[in-house]
């Protein structure tokens, strides 16, 4: 299993907090940068950014992030909440609709034809 797949798997776990610092004060993002793991840096930045944008009703930023291929809208934070969960809880109907529509479109595009 490659590093990126391991990180994606870890990010789905409710007991994993990517912003936690090790004994030297380094976060997962800092270690990925120091190790030159570009895809992991993009993954950590993108997931955190989407959830943060949904928590703050930044619809324009959500639109921008959804254009990226590396965004996983179903990814959850250490509380088990997804970007859609935060949008719904915050009453940000525009963002909730945007994510739901985007998810449905992605499902239809990726679904094999029978």
TrEMBL record:
<dbReference type="InterPro" id="IPR002110">
    <property type="entry name" value="Ankyrin_rpt"/>
</dbReference>
<dbReference type="Pfam" id="PF13637">
    <property type="entry name" value="Ank_4"/>
</dbReference>
<protein>
    <submittedName>
        <fullName>Similar to Ankyrin repeat domain-containing protein 29 acc. no. Q8N6D5</fullName>
    </submittedName>
</protein>
<dbReference type="InterPro" id="IPR036770">
    <property type="entry name" value="Ankyrin_rpt-contain_sf"/>
</dbReference>
<feature type="repeat" description="ANK">
    <location>
        <begin position="24"/>
        <end position="56"/>
    </location>
</feature>
<keyword id="KW-0040">ANK repeat</keyword>
<keyword id="KW-0677">Repeat</keyword>
<dbReference type="Pfam" id="PF12796">
    <property type="entry name" value="Ank_2"/>
</dbReference>
């Amino acid at each position: 299993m490659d590093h990126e797949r391991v990180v994606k798997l870890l990010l789905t776990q409710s007991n994993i907090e990517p912003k936690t610092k090790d004994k030297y004060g380094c976060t997962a993002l800092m270690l990925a940068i120091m190790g030159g793991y570009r895809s992991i840096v993009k993954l950590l930045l993108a997931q955190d950014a989407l959830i943060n944008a949904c928590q703050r009703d930044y619809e324009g930023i959500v639109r921008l992030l959804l254009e990226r291929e590396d965004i996983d809208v179903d990814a959850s934070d250490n509380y088990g909440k997804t970007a859609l969960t935060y949008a719904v809880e915050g009453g940000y109907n525009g963002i909730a609709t945007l994510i739901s529509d985007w998810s449905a479109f992605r499902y239809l595009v990726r679904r094999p034809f029978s």
